[in-house]
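Ops channel
N.P.: pipeline sanity check, posting one input/output pair.
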């Protein structure tokens, strides 16, 4: 009898071991199919790579257990709804809405079931992307990039870098509620700093020349931007126009300084896209997006380009340079 029990025990143990190994092999063989909804492929390649790096750190390798289905609006934001519908039809496991607020809204309208993760949203609650930061509900979650107060901080840094400036232009892309909230916050900050603001709209890249003509005619002494996907993707051209018009400019993303701009203050964009992978991984493992709190940035970087300052004839106060997380000198 003991021998028979031993045989049964060994048999059950082997069956359990076999099932565990089979389940692990099946999970390892499962390919994660991720939809990528972006604006411009050429100008955001490094953000895609940052996301893939984050996925790689979690064990996902493109071409082996990860397929990235990419769709880009190519600067035509009205294409987002159709592109989002394409990704839904491909039955992707998760959609990474990397093209800004409009991309997230398009994806949200296209599906109520496929999980959607945004890497960098201006104000997800005000935009209507989520119900709350703590409990997004629905099928959307992700990382918040911006807050209205950040515009005020950028204005403060401008007045420190260029103390004689009394009028600052604010370039923004109309169309979303968060941008309006940021303009209101900018007005509050301007009153406290005793500077005047000139709000200049740019609905698309074709408006840039006209916008900078308005800025120079009004004799604004400096410039800041209210972030949007379009302005971000066109950052190199904006940097060139600011330099051409000799406008000290602070950008809400470090990428503006990397492109040759004077200063930036804001979260590290590439890091946000790397961290997006954590959300995707949790969802792939069974987490519900509506129960994953929206992550808010906790670290803001100040980057100063002393080479650009020299070109503009500015001497950045040493007290400000000492506070910078990164200083470009050559």
């Amino acid at each position: 009898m003991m021998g028979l029990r031993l045989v049964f025990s060994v048999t059950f143990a082997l069956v359990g071991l076999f099932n565990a190994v089979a389940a692990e092999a099946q999970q390892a063989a499962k390919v994660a199919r991720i939809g990528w909804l972006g604006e411009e492929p050429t100008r955001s390649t490094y953000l895609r790579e940052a996301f893939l790096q984050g996925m790689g750190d979690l064990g996902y390798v493109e071409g082996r257990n990860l397929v990235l289905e990419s769709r880009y609006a190519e600067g035509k934001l009205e294409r987002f709804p159709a592109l989002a519908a394409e990704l839904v039809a491909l039955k992707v496991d998760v959609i990474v809405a990397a093209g800004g607020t409009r991309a997230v809204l398009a994806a949200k309208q296209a599906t109520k079931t496929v999980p959607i993760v945004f890497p960098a949203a201006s104000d997800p609650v005000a935009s209507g992307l989520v119900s709350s930061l703590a409990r997004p509900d629905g099928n959307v979650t992700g990382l918040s990039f911006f807050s209205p107060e950040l515009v005020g901080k950028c204005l403060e840094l401008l007045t420190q870098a260029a103390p004689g400036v009394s009028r600052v232009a604010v370039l923004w892309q109309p169309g979303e509620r968060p941008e309006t909230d940021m303009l209101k916050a900018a007005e509050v900050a301007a009153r406290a700093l005793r500077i005047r603001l000139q709000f200049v709209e740019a609905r698309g890249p074709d408006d840039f020349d006209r916008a900078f003509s308005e800025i120079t005619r009004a004799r604004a002494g400096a410039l800041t931007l209210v972030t949007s996907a379009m302005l971000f993707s066109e950052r190199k051209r904006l940097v060139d126009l600011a330099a051409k018009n000799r406008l000290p400019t602070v950008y809400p993303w470090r990428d503006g300084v990397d492109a040759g701009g004077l200063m930036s203050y804001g979260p590290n964009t590439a890091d946000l896209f790397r961290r997006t992978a954590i959300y995707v991984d949790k969802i792939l493992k069974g987490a519900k997006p509506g129960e994953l709190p929206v992550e808010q940035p906790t670290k803001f970087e100040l980057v100063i380009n002393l080479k650009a300052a020299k070109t503009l004839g500015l001497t950045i106060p040493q007290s400000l340079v000492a506070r910078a997380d990164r200083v470009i000198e050559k």
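N.P.: looks fine end to end. DSSP finds 13 helices and twelve strands in the chain.
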